Amino acid sequence: MTVVKTSMRNFFAHKGRMALSAVAVLLSVAFVCGTLVFTDTMNTTFDKLFAVTSSDVTVMPKDAKSEETPQNGVPDALPASALERVRQAEGVKSAEGAVASMNVTVVDADNDNVGATSGAPTIAGNWTRNDLRSMEITSGHAPRGPTEVMVDADTADKHDLALGDELRTIAQTGDFKARIVGVASFTVTNPGAAVIYFDTPTAQRELLGATGRFTQFNVTAADGVSDAELKRNVAGATDGTYKVQTAKENSDENRKELGEFMNVIKYAMLGFAGIAFLVGIFLIINTFSMLVAQRTREIGLMRAVGSSRSQVNRSVLVEALLLGIVGSILGVAAGVGIAVGLMKLMSTAGMNLSTDDLTVKTATPVVGLVLGIVVTVLAAYLPARRAGKISPMAALRDAGTPADGKAGWIRGLIGLVLTGSGAAALFTAAAADKASEGALMLGAGIVLSLIGFVVVGPLLAGIVVRAISAVLLRAFGPVGRLAERNALRNPRRTGATGAALMIGLALVACLSVVGSSMVASATSELDKTVGADFIVQGSQRIVPQAEKAMQETPGLDHVTRYKMLDATLTSPDGKKDDEGVTAADPTYAEDVNRATTEGELSAAYGADAMSVGSDYATEHDVHVGDTISVAFKGGETAELKVAAITSDDVAIDQGARYISIDTMRKYLPADSVPPNTIMFAKAADGQDEQAYAALKKSLDPYPQYQVADQTDYKQELKDQVGQLLNMVYGLLALAIIVAVLGVVNTLALSVVERTREIGLMRAIGLSRRQLRRMIRMESVVIALFGALLGLGLGMGWGATAQKLLALEGLNVLDIPWPTIIGVFIGSAFVGLFAALVPAFRAGRMNVLNAIATE
C-alpha cells in the first residue's frame, strides 16, 4: 500500500510532465479503437442491409458471383420458365423474378455521371416487392413503361435530380433514355450505392438483351416452412440446375466478399497504429528515464529508510500503470470520436454511414485498455529497473542513475551487429532472383536495420550531432556551442528522442523512393514500348457503342481492340493454368513494342497462333512451333501454335499470352465475346492534334472513359501514385505527431532538470532571448539527427525494394530529392515548433529561484 501511495503522490506531483506521454498513449489507443469501431460499424451497416434485402430463398445461375460480371459484360440470367417451376415447389408462398446489373453508367441531361463516386456500385434493375423490404417510394410512383425510371433519394439529392429529369443509361446492350417518375428512399442505411429502377420488361430488354430472363428469383416461404426446407424443395423443383441459397447463406456470402475488403482496410490502419505505438514507446521511456534521474535523491531516501529495489521498481511501474490507465481510457473515448469523424468523412465522399449503426463491441475498449496499459508498463520497465539499481549512498550524493560505460559499449556493439545483419539481409534481397524470395529478406532487413539503428542510436548521436552542429550551430557562437553540448549531454536520451522521429521519416522516405521509382519506371516503359498515340480506358470495360464511336472518329490511322479472355491453358508438359489469354488486333504489335526472345509478335496474330511470355516458356519448356491447348470459357477448345515468345522483362503486359481477335471469334460464340478492357489508337500522319480533339469529342457521351495521349497517361500514373502516397503519409502523420510530442517532452523535462544551471547562466549574463535560442537550437539538432537517420535508412529500404520491383519490370531507381530535402528542412521546423513551449517556460524562470533549486 505504501508503494501505491508513493506512486500516486509522484504521479500527481508530476502530472504536467506526464501529460505529453499520456497524449501519446491516448493517440495510439484512439487510432486502434477508432479503426475497430469504424470497421465494425461498416460491417453492421452491411449486415443489416444484407439481412433486410435477402429473401427467404434466392435462386441464381450456377456460377453467379455477386462481385463479378461475366466476361461478356452481361449478367448471367435464368429463364422465366424456371420461375414457374419454382412457384410450384412445395412450401413456396410467392416467387418473383429480379433483374440487376452493376455494369452500367447513368448520366444526366448534362452528360454528368450520376452514379456512385465512393467505390460503391451503380445498380440498375427492376422494381420488385422484395425491394420494399429496404426501400419505400417517397415521391412519384414506380416505373410503368420503357420511358420511365425511378432513382434512390440519396442519388437524387446528391445530383439535384427531380421528377421529370431525363437520365441516359449506358449498358453493354446499348444506351436508352428515360424520365424520372419516382424517388425511393432507403429504410436502412445506404452504404453509398446508386440505385435506379425500371419496369421489368425494360430492365430485361435493356440490361440483359432479351425479355423473359431474370438474374435471380426471390422466393418467400409459406407459413411454417423453414428456409432450409424451402431450399430443399426449390432445389428439387429445379433439378439442382441453379444455385439456391437461404437468406442466411446469401447474407454470409455477401458478408464474406465484403469482409476481405474490410480486412485490408482494418489491418492497414492497425499497422499504422502499431507504428504510432512503437514511437510512443520511446516517448514513455524518455519520460520515465528523466523522471527517475530527477528523483535520484528521493529514491535514495526511500532506499535509506528501508525500501527494497523491488519496491522502488514497483513504484515506478505503478506510475506507468496509472499513466497507461488514464491515457487508455481517454484513448478509447477518443477512438469513438475518430470513428464518427471517419464516418462523416466517408459521407462527404459518397458512402453514407449512419451513427445509428455505431458499433462499439465489448472487445474494442478491452483491446484498447489492455494494449495501452501493457505497452506503457513495458516501456517503463527499463527506467524502473535502472531506478531499482541506484544504491542509497550514490542516490543521497545525487550521483544519478548508474552510468555503466561497459554497458554502453556492449549496447553499441549489439547495435552494430544488428545493423550489419540488416544491411546483409537488404543486400541479399537486392540480389534475389525471385521477388517472393527477396520480399522475405527485405522484411527481415527492414526489421533488423531499424532495431539496429535504435540500439546504436546513442553511439550515432555523438557523431551525427557533432556533424550537424558543425554546419548549423557554430555560426551562433557560444549559444550554438551550448546547444550542441546540451544535445550531447545524454546521448542515450538524444538517441531515443531522435529514434522516435526516425521511424516515421524512414517509412516516408522508403515509400517516396518506391512511389517515385514506380512512376519513373512506368514512364520509361511507356516511352520505350508504347507506340500508340492515344489510350482509352475507364472504370468499366468499353461498351460496343463507345467502341463504334471510337472507330468512326476521323483522323485516326487505326484503332486497336484489346480483350481479356477467361481460358485454361494446357502446356506441352501437361500442366494447366487458368490465367487466360489476351485477344487483340494485329495493330497491337505496332501500338506496343514488345521485345521477343523467339519469333515475332506479329506472327502471333495469324490463324490459330498465339504468343506466350518468357517466364511461362521457361517454366514449361515451350518453344516457337509448340502447340498449346486453350479451353475458352463459354466456347470451344483450340489447339494453338506458339508463334512468338515475348520478354517478361517489362512492366506492361508482363506474362500476357496474345491471340488475334479472329482466332477468338473462331472458338468463342458471339454472345460470349467480352468487351474491350482498353483500346489504343494511332493518329494519321500529321493529324495528332486534330485526332486527339476528335477522339475526345467522339467519346464525350461516355464520361466513364478517359482519352489520354502519352503525356496525359504519364500524368495520370503519377497522380494515382501520388494520391496513394498522400493517404499513407496522412496515416503516418500520427506517428510523427507522437514523435514531436516526444521532442517536446524531452525538452520540457530537460529544462526542469537543468533549472539551477539555467539560473546560473542567466546570472552570469545569458539573456532570455539567448536562452530561448539555445533551447530551440538544441531541439532543431535533435530533430535533424532523427531526420538524417530516418531518411538515410528509408532510402536504403526504398532502393532495395526497387531492386525487387525490377524483377517485375520496374527497372528505374528514382530518388525524389525534392521530397527528401523538403522533409529534412521540414524536420528543422518541427524542431523549432517542439521547442516553443519549453523555451518560453525557460525564459520566464526567476533567476534567484532557479539558482536556489535543489
TrEMBL record:
Residue span, MacB-like periplasmic core domain: 19-234, 497-696
Keywords: Cell membrane, Membrane, Transmembrane, Transmembrane helix
Pfam families: FtsX, MacB_PCD
Domain (ABC3 transporter permease C-terminal) ranges: 272-392, 731-846
InterPro entries reported for this sequence: ABC3_permease_C, MacB_PCD, Macrolide_Exporter_MacB
Compartments reported by the entry: Cell membrane
PANTHER family: ABC TRANSPORTER PERMEASE YTRF (PTHR30572:SF4), MEMBRANE COMPONENT OF TRANSPORTER-RELATED (PTHR30572)
Family as reported in the entry's similarity comment: Belongs to the ABC-4 integral membrane protein family.
Protein name, UniProt field: ABC transport system integral membrane protein
Organism (species): Streptomyces ambofaciens
